[in-house]
Design a protein that fits this description.
Keywords: Cell wall biogenesis/degradation, Glycosyltransferase, Golgi apparatus, Membrane, Transferase, Transmembrane, Transmembrane helix. It is found in: Golgi apparatus membrane. This protein folds into two domains: about 5-35 and about 315-410 and about 425-475, no CATH class; about 50-265, Spore Coat Polysaccharide Biosynthesis Protein SpsA, Chain A, CATH 3.90.550.10. It is built from 16 helices and seven strands. It has helices at about 5-35, 65-75, 95-110, 125-135, 155-165, 185-210, 225-230, 240-250, 270-300, 305-315, 320-335, 340-365, 370-385, 390-400, 430-445, 450-480, and strands at about 55-60, 85-90, 115-120, 140-145, 170-180, 220-225, 255-265. The chain is globular.
């Protein structure tokens, strides 16, 4: 028997309880979405002469030809041209992307459009730094932000600015993401399911409950005064959008959400790209957890129940780190080197049940698409692939808690096309495959019945590892064919 068995059992029990609470948080948001009445933003239409000046910021980094498409969508917006400023904030390091931005901006300037290109050689504070640098060159009252892979509808500004004009305490309005390439493959379908759950369940529930609705980094309009009052864009986390939106809430500003205003965007088509994106988001949330939690609990502007809900919101991604720790701590019990007490056994059962029920209900509530079978495929695909990020996202959470800084890594949304000689070394999934096979073999040798409890972890690791391996082989063939 292990000398440290009581301590290990205690830590494992506490970890499982935290995971159960995380699942209960999802269930709470799900039920809030079901039972609370819907809300609409108060808006007042304004005459043409009363419309304010709007700055549109387009932060880019090695986006290739996406700049042409997003500028085409921006130029189609229904807004007076004399009150519309456009900034292409292109920090690209490859000449291919930068030259495309320069050409596109020069063409529009010749047509009389108020547009400028800002290119920083040193990417201080990454996206946050680019946005802040752009604000220094404009005094527009409102600021709309679009990432390069989104295409706002023509009425976007009309629908978002009206509520901001009608409600002076509204800091920003966030629209919902839609997905141009949703049906490309199972990965894009599962990503769409996850994002639909975020916007149509989580964000909508927070909006109905009166909780702050975090800005999602794109497809939203900010009141310039709110940005300045909250302390401006800061680059000390990888989720500068979440950071600023919560700092604005602590200053007394409110947020608005428009579920019925979808903005089409592009989803990553490879597991490697999606894994990179999720790592950044997970680490950014954990960084905000460390940075903002003391301010949130010290704030007199928030009622206690909102402080609890925001704490769960910021801490939710740390479930990957806690889950990885629980898997490791559970190995002695699987091997029989430690014996689980009655309390641990009960907590494990409850946590497992909640761990299945909460995300399944949460993901399903995003809507039935193309029949029950297709919806079930998306839901369980999302469950397994998200669980397959256990190691990567656990590392993200641990780095954030330890204060380890890492650069902002752009998420590629398609094939590697940002230049004719660009080569990217894609991870081959060896870490996930080794962990998944090792865990499966260990469980089968020691206690085969435990595979039932570990099926999501094992299946997710093997799935993500295999898909990364296939991505790597496809890229190797592409590189070989081009050499």
């Amino acid at each position: 028997m292990l000398a440290a068995e009581p301590f290990v059992e205690l830590i494992l029990t506490l970890g499982l309880i935290l995971l159960a609470l995380s699942s209960l948080n999802l269930l709470g948001l799900m039920f809030a979405r079901l039972i609370t009445p819907s809300r609409r933003l108060v808006a007042t239409s304004h005459a043409h002469a009363q419309l304010p000046s709007v700055l549109i910021q387009l932060p880019l980094f090695n986006e290739g030809e996406l700049v042409d498409r997003v500028l085409e969508a921006v130029m189609a917006l229904d807004w007076p041209r004399d009150r519309l400023q456009i900034q292409v904030l292109d920090d690209s390091t490859d000449d291919f992307s930068l030259s495309l931005s320069q050409r596109a901006v020069a063409k529009l300037r010749r047509e009389g459009v108020q547009i400028e290109l800002l290119h920083r050689i040193k990417r201080t504070a990454f996206k946050a730094g680019a946005l802040a640098a752009g604000l220094e060159r404009s005094d527009a009252e409102f600021v709309a932000i679009f990432d390069a892979d989104f295409m706002p509808p023509t009425d976007f500004l009309r629908k978002t600015i009206d509520p901001l004009l009608a409600q002076p305490d509204l800091a920003y309005v966030q629209a919902r993401w839609a997905h141009i390439n949703r049906d490309d493959n199972l990965l894009t379908r599962t990503q769409a399911r996850l994002l639909d759950s975020h916007f149509q369940v989580e964000q909508e529930a927070r909006w109905r409950l009166g909780l702050p609705v975090p800005f999602n980094g794109t497809c939203g309009v900010w009141r310039r005064r709110a940005i300045d009052d909250a302390g401006g864009w800061q680059g000390d986390t990888l989720t500068e959008d979440l950071d600023l939106s919560l700092r604005a809430r602590l200053r007394g500003w409110r947020s608005g959400f428009m579920k019925d205003l979808p903005v089409p965007g592009v989803l990553p088509v490879s597991v490697r790209a999606w894994r990179t994106q999720q790592f950044r988001w997970t680490k950014g949330f954990a960084q905000c957890f460390v940075k903002l939690l003391p301010m949130i609990w010290a704030s007199p502007a928030l009622p206690r129940w909102q402080k609890v809900m925001i704490s769960f919101q910021l801490g939710q991604p740390l479930a990957f780190l806690i889950g990885a720790a629980c898997v490791v701590l559970g190995l002695p019990f699987i091997a029989g080197a430690a014996v689980a007490g009655e309390t641990l056994g009960r907590v494990a059962i409850v946590t497992s049940l909640l761990g299945f029920a909460a995300p399944i209900g949460f993901l399903t509530l995003a809507g039935i698409r193309s029949g029950a079978r297709a919806t079930a495929t998306e839901v369980f695909g999302a469950l397994f692939l998200t669980t397959g990020l256990l190691l990567s996202n656990a590392r993200a959470g641990l780095e954030a808690l330890l204060g380890y800084r890492s650069p902002f890594v752009r998420t590629p949304k398609g094939a590697v096309t940002a230049g004719p000689r660009r080569i990217v070394r894609w991870p081959n999934g060896l870490v996930e495959l080794s962990a998944g096979l090792g865990l499966l073999g260990f469980a089968l040798m020691e206690q085969p019945v435990t595979v039932i409890y570990l099926v999501m972890v094992i299946g997710g690791l093997l799935g993500v590892g295999t898909l990364q391996f296939l991505d790597g082989r496809a890229l190797s063939k592409q590189t070989g064919a081009g050499s």
